Structure formats: C-alpha cells, structure tokens
Amino acid sequence: MFESKWGLRFVAFVLALAFFLTVNNVFGNIFGTSSISQNTTRTIQNVPVEATYNSKNLYASGIPESVDVQLKGSQSKVLKAEQSDDIKVELDLTNTTFGRHKIDYEIKGLDKDVEGTVNPKQATVNLERKVSKEMTVTADVSDKDIDPNYQVKNQSVTPKKVKVIGGQHQVEKIAYLKATFKNASNIKDDTTDVGEIVAFDKNLKRIDVITKPSNVNITVELKPYSKKVDIKKKVIGKANSKLNADNVNLSKQQVEIFGNREELSDIQSITGVINLADFESSDEAGVSLELPDTVKKADSSDITATVSAK
User: Fold this and answer.
1) Could you report the per-residue pLDDT of 242-281, keeping only the tens digit for each?
2) CA 3: distance to chain centroid?
3) Torsions phi, psi of 36, nearest 5?
4) Angle at Cα 125 formed by Cα 122 and Cα 128, nearest 5°?
5) What is the DSSP annotation of the chain?
6) Closest CA to 278 of 247, 253, 232, 310
7) Looking at the predicted structure, is the pLDDT value of residue 182 above 60?
8) CA distance 292 to 268
9) What mean pLDDT do residues 290-301 have?
10) Per-residue model confidence (pLDDT) at position 224
11) pTM for the full model?
C-alpha cells in the first residue's frame, strides 16, 4: 500500500485527521467530559420526612411533612437517584427529652458519590407529653367558598365532637376547632361536603395537633345575598300646608338590598324619595327608593314617611 500513490495519500489523510482531533481535544470532549461524567445539581421536591421517637408517650410538633432534597454528583448517578424510591429523609429523636430541639436531617438511600442536602439542614422540633381531649368543632364557611349571589343561612358539622391529640401545652392553648371545606368552591346550592379540621389559639394562630377523625362533613344552607344600607331622605313636591323637609321622618333608617356581593360592596346608602303632596289627605306617605342597576330588589314593604308638628 505504501508503494502506491493512493496508499500514501490515505495514510497522510489519517495522520492529518488524528492530528486535528488531538489539537481540538475532540476525544477529550467525548470521553473525558461527556454529559454522562459531568457534575450536575438537581432537586427532588416533597420527599416525606420520617421521625423516630417515643410516639406512645411523647408528641412532636414542628416536623414538616416533606422537604426538598438537593442532589449533587455526576449526571448519570444523580439521574439514577432521581428515579429511585430508596431516598428517605429522617429525623432521629430517640435520644431527646422534653423541650425544643434543633435536629439535623439525615438523608438515606443515596449512592456514596452523590451528595444530598436539605435547606435548612435542621428542623426545630418541640417534644411534649402526649395528651388527648375531646373538643367541639364548628363550621367555618367563608365568602370565598360561596357564589357571590348567595350567603350562608345556616352551617353545621357532623360529627360535632372529635378527639384532639397533641402536646399538653399545645392542647391547652386551643381556643377553636374550625372545619373548612376541603374541595368545595363557588357553592350555589345547599351542600354537604368534606371539611378539614384546623386548631387555633385565641389569636387565631394555627396549632400543630392531630384530630381523630381528621375530617368532618360540613352542611351549609344558602340564601340570596343581601346587606343593610342607610336611607338618604330626599323630599320633593309641595303641600298646601306649611310642611317642609324638616317635618318628614322615616319609619326606618336602613333598608335591606339584594344582589351580587361584589357589585353591592361599594353601595353604602340608597335614596328614599318622599313627595310632600302625598301628605294632603294623610299624615303618612309612601317612600320611593331609587335603586341602582346592580341592586336586584330591596325590602321596602314597611318603610313609610310621617310628619311631625312644629
């Protein structure tokens, strides 16, 4: 082959190609720093936290349900760790006593070449003597759960009493057990649905306890949304007598108006019109209400105007 012209050309081409690849570090880019061997950082979200302690006699508060774990290492091993179900986050409280403690998270199930971290690296846990107490639950249906054309007429929960389990100090601080809808929203009809129980102290700060059962049924009855607003008196017309606006009094100072909660939010008063001419044959007259378009109706059946002598 070396004796032919084409053989010499082929050898020269191979040597030139090898020289080019070496100078430009192509082999190194492929094998030395490939995407497989490069270091990378990934985060696994919502990894459950397991705590070990004497749960029969102690109650631990402040333990998060889950944390995010940051993984660092070669891309191949990090990707493998991401797909694994072996990764666990633990808090070892076996040697702790009553009181508040800062405990390091321990990450288990990782390859020795993969570094795992939790930020912050510690949990602040409070250990107390475990107690239980039966308490009453009340329904807490908010406006955000209800269609703005309606409001709550009546609300109740079933069962009304539940068992509360927690640290002695925490349980003693409970002022309210409130049940709020877990899934229901924009409710337009009388409804019964699942409610989640939350414990609060007197300042409405959430308290970390367990309830059994953890959920109750909330029943809510609705009625059309309404609010009471002031009546602004507007006297018109003339009477043959010496009546004037100062002689006219309303039987009620407020009226109930109906409509959409959001549309009625800016309405603080309604104008009530009284015509002095209506007093010619009587000392009582009707009141005509000037209703904005956003008001569907008003309860004006028993609103009248009377005159007072001067």
Assistant:
1) 677 778 889 999 999 999 999 999 999 999 999 988 887 7
2) 84
3) -75, -35
4) 165
5) -TTSHHHHHHHHHHHHHHHHHHHTTHHIIIIIS-TTTSEEEEEEEEEEEEEES-TTTEEEES--SEEEEEEEEEHHHHHHHHT-S--EEEEE-TT--SEEEEEE-EEES--TT-EEEESSSEEEEEEEEEEEEEEE-EE---GGGB-TTEEEEEEEEESSEEEEEEEHHHHHH--EEEEEESS--SB-S-EEEEEEEEEE-TT--EE--EEESSEEEEEEEEEE-EEEEEEEEEEES--SSS--GGGEEES-SEEEEEE-HHHHTT--EEEEEEEGGGGSS-SEEE-EEE--TTEEEEE-TT-EEEE---
6) 247
7) yes
8) 12
9) 93
10) 96
11) 0.67
Report pLDDT digits (tens) over 200-209.
999 999 999 9
What pLDDT, on a 0 to 100 scale, did the predictor assign at position 81?
Answer: 81
Residue 150 CA: distances (Å) to CA of 89, 261, 263: 47, 8, 12
